[in-house]
Amino acid sequence: MSGTIQERDTDVLVVGGGGSGLATAVQAAQLGARVVLVEKNDELGGTSARAVGSVSASLTDLQRRNGIRDSLDEHFEDMGAFAGENVHRDNLVLRRRYVEHTGETVHWLQSLGIAFFGPMPEPPNRHPRMHNVLPNAGAYIHWLRRAALKLGVEILTSTSATRLIREDGRVAGAECTGPDGTTLHIRCTRGVVLAAGDFSSSVELKREHLGEDKSRVEGINPTSNGDGLRLGIEAGGRLLNADLSLWGPEMRFVAPPKKLLVQRLPPVKPLTAIMQLALRFMPDRLLRPFIMAFATSYLAPTQDLHHEGAILVNQEGERFTDETKQPWLDLPLQRDGVGYIVLDRRVAETFTAWPRFVSTAPGVAYAYMDDYRRNRKDIYHEAATLPELAAKIGVPADRLAASAADAGVLPDGTPRCARGPFVALGSVKSWIVMTDGGLAVDEHLRVLDEADVPVPGLYAAGSNGQGGLLLEGHGNHLGWAFVSGRLAARAAVTDPRPA
Ligand SMILES: Cc1cc2nc3c(=O)[nH]c(=O)nc-3n(C[C@H](O)[C@H](O)[C@H](O)COP(=O)(O)OP(=O)(O)OC[C@H]3O[C@@H](n4cnc5c(N)ncnc54)[C@H](O)[C@@H]3O)c2cc1C
Prior knowledge:
Distance between the termini: 37 Å
Number of helices: 19
CATH architecture of the largest domain: 3-Layer(bba) Sandwich
Oligomer: single chain
CATH superfamily of the largest domain: FAD/NAD(P)-binding domain
Shape: globular
Helix content: 25-40%
Number of domains: 2
Bound molecules: flavin-adenine dinucleotide
CATH class of the largest domain: Alpha Beta
Strand content: 15-25%
CATH topology of the largest domain: FAD/NAD(P)-binding domain
């Protein structure tokens, strides 16, 4: 009912019900705190539920069982090797905290019911560290939610935090809008933990930090609007590394029309046990169809396709950009932001075997033209001639033919798009996968103000609490979501109470 205000009391208030918020809530409740978690969407999960599900970790039982002798120092150094030219912008205090807690956090997740396979290698990591969740990232949300409810966490979905409540110089709770427009004032004795995800879908924040051209590119999670970052800034916090866009914009194939089997599998223990055995003992040729269904789902096509000659056209059949530069910035300006990658027989035959893959799910698999032909009939279109291909994808035949002719030749004189049969892959769209700007935090995930002083009562976790930490390489964002959530919970519950 709009107009009414409900009052509630708790110890810890968690804003956001993705991976970091749920980890915070479970850990705080395990430490004996009363916890309320608010989630603005109808369902828990956030970007965490859309993820592939890998977590990078060292000193785990799975590493030991596979004979991998890792160390915290090597893990710490390898993270720096991923950072490349941005390495000087990293937060080394948070990197050290992260590395120290990844192993125990994987064990904690396993203790709640979550199953992994791997670890898989990903250079420049010198040891395999990528632990992949089974059967999909929904398992994190399922098991964390279950643990939270068992521990008495109050979960309020369709409830959005809109403003922080400050009392006596301290963040003492949040005003939230619940279903039906109800206003809730949720006060907390211990603190508020902001765990509300990144700003990949906030046009304003993208314009401010990434620039006008990137602000036009959609975020993969349409509800990642940077709410938690705004709340933190209003309370005196500041953003770090918000100008880095390390995970997009990039072009990706649109998602399959139906969720894949692997995405629909329930995270029940007998199933994950069978999957663990199959992944360990089944021959690759039997596993490949299953893995390929996933590896061709909505991944990024390699730019090498264009270096070899493939062209990119819009729904008018026209080339609109230099495909080898930054086509993802021009694609959003086309009708519906949609394009098709068009290639001829020579290019198709090039991308049929290692090392010429069409896409990769890092640490899981590489997909080639044949995999797309078999698994993605919705985006793989083939025809003997360009006019036939144009009819299949619904673009004007004369313009597509003109685009192929205008594409010219490669530096060695080979025509780019000349010999049939022709293939169109698409549609493709541009996306920002995620943003890396987080609130400045100290090693206890306390939000810091302009003078590097903690804002009393305010903590941040996951993307909100990224604090300038660089999470390049796969499996570090979810890893950070869980590690930082647990650390924020510990700090919120154990920090000395205000006098
Ligand atoms: C396609 C894809 C694949 C990925 N795969 C991987 C992977 O395999 N490994 C990896 O490490 N990382 C991966 N990532 C990144 C990773 O998923 C995210 O960085 C991580 O899940 C962020 O967790 P979070 O808890 O900070 O945010 P989220 O999971 O987004 O949770 C934030 C929650 O807060 C809620 N919220 C927002 N505003 C409010 C408000 N005002 N009030 C209440 N609730 C609010 C949101 O609705 C959301 O549920 C992937 C990302 C994408 C897009």
